Amino acid sequence: MTTPMNKNSLLVELFVEELPPKALKKLGDAFAGVLRDQLVAQGLAEAGSVLTSYASPRRLAAHITHVADRAADKAVSQKLMPVAVGLDASGQPTPALLKRLGALGADASAVPGLKRAMDGKAEALFYESTAKGATLAEGLQKALAEAIAKLPIPKVMSYQLETGCELPGWTSVSFVRPAHGLVALHGDAVVPVEALGLKAGRETHGHRFEAAVDPVVLRDANSYALQMQEDGAVIASFEARRAEIARQLAAAAVTVGGGSVPIQDEALLDEVTALVERPNVLVCSFEREFLEVPQECLILTMKANQKYFPLLDASGRLTNRFLVVSNISPDDASAVIGGNERVVRPRLADAKFFFDQDRRKSLASRVESLGKVVYHNKLGTQGERVERVMRIARGIAEKLGDATLAAHATQAAQLAKADLVTDMVGEFPELQGIMGRYYAQHDGLDASVADAIEDHYKPRFAGDELPRNTVGLVVALADKLETLVGMFGIGNLPTGDRDPFALRRHALGVIRMLIEKNLPLDLSALVSSARTVLDDAIGKTGEFPLHKAAEDVRLVVDYIYDRLAGSLREQGASAQEVEAVLAPRPQRLGEVPKLLAAVRAFAALPAAAALAAANKRIGNILKKAPEADAHVSELLLQEPAEKALHAAMAQVVPAANAQFEAGDYTASLQTLAALREPVDAFFDGVMVNAEQADLRLNRLGLLMSLHAAMNRVAQLERLAV
Fold it and tell me: Do residues 325 and 245 make contact, with C-beta atoms less than 8 angstroms apart?
């Protein structure tokens, strides 16, 4: 068996036209990761080889340490066939064996060397040989093809490549962008591989305008990053380039003064990193008059359209200065600064125009226009949906507060979607709700109504804040419940990989509001009320396909509990604890954290395991006794153990029930733990299924009473191992 002769670092680079910026980091990581994994799988790279990925607008590259020029040979043992099939009675090879050996490149001379070993119940013949390790050229060719095939390309381009033949001809190539160069260096030696119609070499290209030399001729694999920076004026590493941009942004903000800081936006920083090869941060400004426009509008247009970093002052207010990440570093940057200021000015002017125009009409006057906006072909228009949300919100508000809350919630629900038909939201859909709040303030509406118009979309994502006031909570709940019930009602249920209407997010929003605000609302009643509103609005017209209201309500409630269970597990609760708490379907979700804490405290008690097991046993007994009820007659208690259990329950259960009613669930379960010994004694000394019917029913009644008392907080049997 031979060993690898030479280990060195490997550098592979694909030089391409500008890659899609939002996908660049993922493309770079995937390209490098698959290359390394394939080389390791072929024995050409060590498992501990260090991988460095590079990704810039015009290149994907990978640097891998400890790569061999040839993989080690491997001993291979191949099963041929059972001995009885391969050898005849005299031990000579059969034609079947000779044919199989021939297929492996061997002949009859290999028969004496065949190994015999048991394979299941029969003895089999095995052919042992040595497989030569792949050369780096062979292995890298395979790895490169795999890395290219597995790239998470958002959209493939097809382009044509000159064949190089004497007669003109073209070859079609498909890749994320046209590729123009391939580098493959093992140490300082070129690895002869091909990809996308390109042959590997050691030449690449740097910055379009600022490279010191072109092409950049790479000395060896280890000099790649340094040569690209010094000769090519390119920071090839995505992470290094990102860190340099962040450093320059912070430094530029300091030069502006006044406690200015660039807006924090990780996605924008990633995108800008993918747009430049040699970042140069410049400070620009715009006219102060534009600051009269809500800062969310200005920030969004600068970030989304121009990829600029707005500067905020020490109090978080937008200033009239912004930062540009340029891809060139001229001696005099005034032309670059002036150009960017000219470009952003029309964008800001548009935002100011939209804002001024929108304020000429009140939000209330726009509600009628929502009747022309289709929400869903089976659920009607946004106008019809607004009417449903208003009714649901009014019902919730009446449960939570007084007439003032109901009036404000109804008004906020009516106006919550009105900004969808404004010019500003038409241009920037991300501002829906935000602009509604500004326009409501301009209309002189109550502050709680204006805030609710913005907040009814919250929480919009994991970790997002909840609505800031009760009016916002009511409208947000109504909006999300209407969506859930409506979509389930027409059969638009989310699947494992598809959730186009964000029903998971809506369900988690409902859960968070009910729990974190501890709202005194029953979940099933909320869903049922929302369904009633939809049935009244569209169910009777024949447009609502599913009329199984009770079943739909159950499906929505189950879906919300499923999302709650997943959320609790993500927060660290065990599956058993979650099942125990949610199995009784607690209707006030605000109680769930206390119930979970009580179950955890109970599970830590010495008596917990025995009581959980007993509870499971009782449950199984009662399932087989449908005739049982919770009635217990003291006159029919005969055995000392059942008398003792009944007496213990008479003392313990009332105290536990009182604690439960007071909301002290932990104390309630700990009080019930005192029943462990009498319960154990009962099962040791009492025959539950007595032949005498009245005794049997009395004992079942005793167990049913015990089971009911034990399971008020949670289904303790779920804790049984």
Answer: yes
- Residue 703's CATH number: 1.10.730
CA 622 to chain CA centroid, nearest Å: 42
The domain boundary residue, chosen from 318, 335, 358: 358
Question: Is the separation of the CB atoms in 264 and 316 below 8 Å?
Answer: no
Between 72 and 40, whose confidence is greater?
A: 40
Considering the domain architecture, whether residues 326 and 377 belong to the same structural domain is answered as no
Residues 261 and 307 in one domain: yes
Q: Which residues, 6 or more positions from 303, have their beta carbon under 8 angstroms from its beta carbon?
A: 263, 265, 268, 309, 310
Q: What is the DSSP letter of 20?
A: P
Cβ contacts of 345 within 8 Å, gap of 6 or more: 286, 287
- Starting from the edge strand earliest in sequence, which strands make up the sheet with 115-119, in order? 74-82, 122-131, 115-119
Q: What is the mean predicted confidence (pLDDT) over 549-561? A: 90
Identify residue 116 by its one-letter amino acid code.
R
Residue 162: pLDDT above 70?
Answer: no
Q: What is the CATH number of the domain that holds 12?
A: 3.30.70
- State the DSSP string of 626-660: TT--S---GGG--SHHHHHHHHHHHHHHHHHHHHH
Residue 683 included in any domain: yes
- Give the count of domains, the chain: 5
DSSP 416: T
Does the residue 581 lie in any domain?
no
Place of tokens 């990053």: 225
Statement: residue 367 has pLDDT above 70: yes
Map residue 555 onto helix, strand or coil.
Answer: helix
Looking at 157-171, 365-379, 395-409, 514-528, which range is the least confident one?
A: 157-171
Shared domain check, 224 and 259? no
Q: What pLDDT score does 4 carry?
A: 45
Clarify whether residues 114 and 196 are in a common domain.
no
Alpha-carbon gap, residue 222 to 81, rounded angstroms: 50
Instruction: Look over the chain and give the mean of its residue pLDDT values, rounded to a whole number.
Output: 91
Is residue 168 a part of any domain in this protein?
A: yes
Owning domain of residue 531: 363-572
d(CA 82, CA 559): 55
Q: Is 296 left (phi over 0), alpha (psi -120 to 50) or beta?
A: alpha
- Tell which residue, 134, 114, 131, 132, has the closest CA to residue 123: 114
Percent pLDDT > 70 in the chain is: 97
In terms of domains, do 410 and 497 share one? yes
Indicate whether 533 and 664 sit together in one domain.
Answer: no
**Both 157 and 19 in a single domain?**
yes
Q: pLDDT tens for residues 604-628?
A: 999 888 888 988 888 888 888 887 7
pLDDT of residue 321: 96
Mean pLDDT of 16-45: 93
Distances (CA, A) of 283 to 259, 524, 531: 15, 56, 55
Supply the pLDDT for residue 172: 78
The CATH number of the domain holding residue 543 is: 1.10.3210
**Closest by alpha carbon to 13, among 154, 180, 262?**
180
Q: Is 322 within the bounds of a domain?
A: yes
**pLDDT tens digits along 112-123:** 888 888 888 888
| SS3 state of residue 122 | strand
Q: Cα–Cα distance between 395 and 405 in angstroms, integer?
A: 11
Do 142 and 115 sit in the same domain of this protein? no
Indicate whether 214 pLDDT > 70.
yes
Q: How many residues does the chain have?
A: 721
Q: Which of 82, 109, 131 is the last residue of a domain?
A: 131
